[in-house]
Amino acid sequence: MKKRPGTQGLDSYLDTLAGALGHADREAGLKGYCRGLMLPLERKSVEPMAAHLDPRHVRARHQALHHFVSQSEWSDAAVLAKVREWVLPRLVRNQALYWIVDDTGIRKKGRHSVGVARQYCGQIGKQDNCQVAVSLSIATVQASLPVAWQLYLPLEWAEDAARRRNAGVPEELAFASKPEIALTQIRQAKAAGVPVGVVLADAGYGTNTQWREALSELDMQYAVGVVSSVGVWAPGTEPQPAKPRRAMGRPTIRRRLVADQKPVSVKALALDLDRRRFRHVRWREGTNAPLSSRFAALRVRVSHGDPRRAELSPEQWLLIEWPRGESEPTKYWLSNLPAESTLKTLVMTVKARWRIERDYQDLKQEFGLAQYEGRGWRGFHHHATLCVAAYGFLVGERLRGAGQKKPSELPKPPLPRRYLPRGAATRAAPRRNLDRNLALARG
Fold it and tell me: How would you label 108-128 residue by residue, b for 16+ Cβ within 10 Å and e otherwise?
């Protein structure tokens, strides 16, 4: 029997991933689950996948897949490493490389699913009951791949021993903010030898001074969003050195401020700029028209919130976007890219972050990332890992030029004629004398 085009490549890919599972008896679970995620189903939860994968043995396949994703003790990090090793050689080919940090929300009802709380949900742009996960993606202008994924555990969950126990949250896991989770992911990726790229992130991460300083300590370049209130020293201004040491007493190390030289917000600095500093830059082709806007860039020092710190922060780029027709600038970024970087390079770099939105869109719409129905920590992360694994094959094949189809374009195996999903209304009794109400009436 001939295999469909692309099937042999998928078999080889899944064989590679199976090597990270630890036990051979888990291989069928990984291959079945990944294939199920690649089927064009309306919902990628365990039951419909089981029904289409093995129509004659739906219950048995359902139990096997459920156990594999929610209970089996295989390593998410080991599987993601295999995915990364398979995709990155196709992705990293003499191109600008980026490490994109972001988080995504998954709307969820109730309070028992791990990590669910009322918090900001990027999916709808406001507060809602949801789970939030932090991810790190490796990207070029052609494609991107998530290489790390971790659920953010709100403080109310982190301090609730009963909820943690019921959801299977690891005992050693303490509360960590989203920037702290992202920094751990970056450190782990660098330690694993992942090719280093410029770190990109929105203002939720970039505004955090300690986070940017930690990236610098790791010798990482970054171009990250900041809010308009971040304080900087404008070009040509800075606090004065400490006063000379006196004959007696402790030496003074804090710098001095002078009346006409104080830090200003990036918004105030932008509004004071000569409008001729802003230049029109186009960064890529959009769906209907080229994407472009007006930008200005200048060298500044961040004031750290304490303008009299003994050590001045190093100079870095402040990039400002002020679209034509707007009454004030709309976005700001700080970057430690080299001082000789051009305005176009800075713009192309910060705008490369759009790739993470494509990751999330494809993972949710095509691979069922947001459709896991379990409540536990292990199942949540296993499901996400397998979604990334299925997505990684698609990314790799596209980069190879194989023209791999989307899951929505793949053929869907038929269901058995008498199949009914769980919770569906049962069929009426086929014979009148089995009708319960009629039997009671006769009694």
Answer: beeeebbbbbebebbeeeeee
Same domain, 273 and 197: no
Same domain for 347 and 395, yes or no, is no
Tell me, yes or no, whether 151 and 25 share the same domain: yes
Does one domain contain both 377 and 281?
no
Question: Residue 195 in contact with residue 91, Cβ under 8 Å?
Answer: no
Mean pLDDT in residue range 235-264 = 64
Q: Please return the burial class of 415, using the count of CB atoms within 10 Å of its CB with bins 0-12, 13-18 and 19+.
A: middle
Q: How many CB atoms lie within 10 A of CB 386?
A: 27
* pLDDT of 259: 56
Are 21 and 74 in contact, with CB atoms under 8 Å apart?
Answer: yes
- pLDDT of res. 240: 65
Q: Which helix (H) or strand (E) holds 139?
A: strand 126-139
Residue 296 backbone dihedrals phi, psi, to 5 degrees: -135, 145
The dihedral built from the CA positions of residue 81, 87, 90 and 94, taken in this order, carries a sign that is negative
Name the more confident of 441 and 327: 327
**Are residue 109 and residue 176 in the same domain, yes or no?**
yes
Rg, the chain, Cα only: 27
Are 42 and 130 part of one and the same domain? Answer: yes
Distance of CA 246 to the CA centre of its chain: 54
d(CA 21, CA 74): 5
Q: What is the pLDDT of residues 322-342, one digit of tens each?
A: 999 999 999 999 999 999 999
Over 60: is that where the pLDDT of 199 sits? yes
Residue 370 tokens, joined: 């947001």
Mean pLDDT score of the chain: 87
Average pLDDT over residues 398-416: 66
pLDDT at 236: 82
Question: CB under 8 Å to 414, separation ≥6 — which residues?
Answer: 55
Per-residue burial over 246-264, b = 16 or more CB atoms within 10 Å of its CB, e = otherwise? eeeeeeeeebeeeeeeebb
**What gap in Å lies between CA 337 and CA 345, rounded to an integer?**
9
Q: Please, how many CA atoms are within 13 Å of residue 35, restricted to the half-sphere of its CB?
A: 23
The structural domain count of the chain equals: 2
Long-range contacts of the stretch 205-214 (C-beta < 8 A, 24+): 205/101, 205/178, 205/179, 206/333, 206/334, 208/179, 209/302, 209/304, 209/305, 211/179, 211/182, 211/183, 212/302, 212/334, 212/336, 214/183
